[in-house]
Amino acid sequence: MTILHHPGDDLVLGYAAGSLAESWSIAIAAHLTYCPICRLKVEAAENVGGSLLGGLDAEAMAPSALDLLLTQIKGVEQNEPEKPRASIKESSPSKQLSILPSALQSYIGNDVDALPWQRLKNDVFQYLIETNDYEAKARILRIKAGRPVPSHGHRGRELTLVLSGSFEDELSKFSTGDLQDVAEETVHKPVAASGDGCICLAVKDAPLQFKELIPRILQPVLNI
Fold this sequence. Notes:
Layout: H1 9-17, H2 22-34, H3 36-54, H4 65-77, H5 102-108, E1 118-121, E2 124-128, E3 137-143, E4 152-154, E5 158-168, E6 173-175, E7 179-182, E8 191-192, E9 198-204, E10 208-210, H6 213-222
Antiparallel strand pairs: 1-2, 2-3, 3-9, 4-10, 5-6, 5-7, 5-8, 5-9
């Protein structure tokens, strides 16, 4: 499996430092299951951060410390790792009975068919994940083959991790393990690829801006 789309370095740094809110952390932990490159990025961030903290005395951390850390992380991208990070205990999803990474199974179980899905529009369904997070919201989306998510913009950041199948939008194609990281200026209309459709984990920190009337009317009720 080749992963082509990754989270921003700020999320990698935040995850390594343990400073991400719960919903963002779920998405990054799940992505790490698929992505050896990001596992090594997290390891590099933890190693460099630990070295810097270990060398601190009464003086402040050098201003170049963050630059050094980012250089280490960027260096990981240049070399495809040969094996997964040893400290990541999750097994590959391909070796699990469930399509869900362990980071998600601890929240929603391992059977996506057993979830009480809520219809959003036509052949698009969601399941809200319960967390103690007040910064962002996480949900599982299930989109039938060839069906679109209504066109929308963003008031904040949104992460979408493909758990099964794939989808395409105006930006690119995203397959299993890929993580789309979009900001406020992004407007798109994701469409599930043909075949078995697409199941995704989506995390956002602000309501979406739907372009169609019906999704806008239903938005307060569906909490999207």
